[in-house]
Design brief:
Length: 297
């Protein structure tokens, strides 16, 4: 339904008894509410066109919206998280709420469909449990799961399970590509609960771990979330470098030989790289063969 149709429907439902008041209300609504929405969306697109960050003055000049109105609209967008003030600079950038909406769209419409063949392939070639996950605000949420083909398998819970980003391969794979301020926000909300003796509970150590994730192109969970479980995950990213989700495979420690983990890693990384390319991502990661295998601490 178009904006005008929404406004007319709203006014009609109000059933104003005075036709003159009804006409005035409709005219006022079209002039103010719809114009405000149009201008707010124009500002968001202008920030995106500017590379994701620009100043108030440049926004006003580019969009033709006066500075006062522009400032008020930006304040509302900042309040809702669609725009963020850039610390140390008098400029505005797209907020993390934009990522939330894009993730929701990709998760519901496109990502699971595109990922399904890769999930099936990894499951067939490794025999292990495979997950597709997304980062929703501050939680890792599993949206697709294929159970292991072995009698002894990893129990990862039902779909929609919220896991700790700092302690899982899927979580670390996605955190690694976020700005440090956003990582701090997520960790600040979720905390760094110790699930096993191997769980990373120090923020500085986590940041160093995430640096290695970016360097190697994949993340490892070495019994950090569940005892006796090894997991390898890699992020799926789009043409802007933004994280779309992550794909991972988990195995019980009893099957986690170097050879088996390397096979899991190769399949997961290949799938993530191919999916990223499908979303327009540019491959700048090192080849799989250059990456070390490290199962035990």
């Amino acid at each position: 339904m178009r904006h005008r149709e929404v406004v007319v429907a709203f006014v009609d439902n109000a059933r104003t008894s005075n036709p003159a008041q009804e006409s005035e209300l409709r005219s006022s609504t079209e002039r103010s509410s719809i114009r405000s929405v149009d201008r707010a969306l124009t500002l968001l697109e202008a920030i995106a066109e500017a590379g994701g960050e620009t100043t108030l003055t440049k926004l006003a000049l580019h969009t033709g919206v006066n500075i006062s109105t522009c400032h008020h609209l930006l304040s509302t967008l900042v309040k809702w998280g669609y725009v963020a003030k850039v610390p140390g600079r008098r400029s505005y950038a797209l907020g993390t709420r934009i990522l939330f909406l894009s993730h929701a769209c990709l998760r519901q419409v496109d990502l699971p469909r595109r990922a399904q063949p890769f999930i099936e392939r990894i499951n067939e070639l490794t025999g292990e449990t495979v997950h597709l996950a997304v980062l929703e605000r501050d939680a890792v949420v599993t949206v697709v799961k294929r159970e292991a083909r072995h009698a002894v398998r990893v129990d990862t819970g039902p779909l929609g399970t919220s896991e700790a980003p700092h302690a899982t391969a899927t979580g670390k794979a996605m955190l690694a590509w976020l700005p440090e301020d956003e990582i701090r926000r997520i960790i600040g909300v979720r905390g760094m609960t110790r699930f096993t003796p191997n769980t990373i509970t120090d923020f500085t150590t986590l940041i160093e771990e995430l640096r290695l994730v970016r360097r190697h192109g994949y993340a490892m969970d070495r019994e950090e979330f569940q005892p006796g479980v090894i997991c390898v995950g890699a992020a799926v990213r789009d043409h802007t470098g933004a994280v779309v989700g992550s794909i991972s495979a988990s195995t019980p420690l009893m099957r986690a030989t170097d050879t088996h983990v390397m096979r899991m890693r190769e399949e997961v990384v290949t799938a993530a790289r191919t999916l990223s390319a499908d979303f327009g991502g540019t491959n700048t990661e090192p080849a799989v063969a250059e990456r070390p295998v490290a199962v035990a601490n």
